[in-house]
Amino acid sequence: MAYKSLTTIVTSPEEAEVAISGAAHMALLLDAHLDVLALGVDRTQAGYSYLGGGGVFMQVALDRAEADARAAEAAARAALENQPATLRWSLDSAMTQVAALSDLVALRARFADLVVLQRPYGEGKGIETEATLEAALFEGQAPVLVLPGPTVMPQLPERVVIGWNQSREAMVAVRRALPLLKSAKRVDIAVIDPPQHGPERSDPGGALCQMLVRHGVKAEVSVLARTMPQVSDILARHLRDFDADLLVMGGYGHSRFREAILGGATRNMLEEAEIPVLMAH
Description:
Blueprint: E1 5-10, H1 13-30, E2 33-42, H2 54-81, E3 88-97, H3 98-109, E4 114-118, H4 127-139, E5 144-147, E6 159-164, H5 168-176, H6 178-183, E7 186-192, H7 206-214, E8 219-224, H8 231-242, E9 246-250, H9 256-262, H10 265-272, E10 277-280
């Protein structure tokens, strides 16, 4: 398997340059085609409007979303045309309401080998950025590479950490990340405080390591003690100690609602990670 079709989603003109630069760079590194979808999002809630003004209100909101889609498309096209001539790309635009965004994104993500997105949290980020990420992961069933900002990887990752907790989500992420794992110089399987009575109690991460080695991956296992309350903090420290270029992990082992309200490893890593994160669910 190789990544031959990459997809990225642009939801505002302001983020187009950064989003396109990161995704285009990955497409060039992987010799892949980049599909770009520019979205205009109607963020209004149709159920809340003044009596008698609903029709006018909805039309104004749709006109604004259409204008946003055109502006995002124009900004994305300008960013794409500034990329090297060797980049193969296509660009489409659409407008959608927030409630219908998941279906639209999922349809595009479903046919992508890898979806490349910017970090969905932070200053200036709207609700549509998180919804886009979740739609690609859940409804689209696509692996998602989340980039932490305008800085891109100068080359394919050489040092990769896998956040391994024996979950189905983590296993899916590992399988989807195999092309990058096989090209890396070192891959570390990080197991944090493995349960004493779990299925891998005698050899945490050993079965995964064996599977990866048979694929030609230069893998090793690190068993980490839980020295801090948050798993994400332990993992972040290990990423720095290992000088990692990429983190591979399962996305949203808990429900999205619980992660949004109480926090969780996925949300915390996406908020704090200083390197790209490849996730799958």
